Amino acid sequence: MERKARVQRTAEEKWQIVVEGLKSGNIAETCRKYEIAPNLYYRWKDEVEQGAKEFDITLVGFLRDDHFNIYHGRDRIGGHTSTSRGVPE
Prior knowledge:
By secondary structure, the protein is mostly helical. It has a domain at 11-71. It is built from four helices and no strands. Helix 1 (11-24) crosses helix 3 (38-64). It is elongated. The N and C termini lie far apart (64 Å). 4% of the residues are buried.
């Protein structure tokens, strides 16, 4: 029996497959549809979750610095609000 050639999937394709499995609730069916082993699906799922955690940590850091204050009308220079600079709230 011949083995099929390995399919190289992009990060976007992996993400879509993981999301489809989560939405359907039937991981085995999703794996059969895309001809992947369940352990590979779960590895991709772990990668997606780890990426989301890293993004969340980066976002929290971003919101704690001055960018957050500027976008919420708390400039350090002159105490301007976002509306006084012409930026809609």
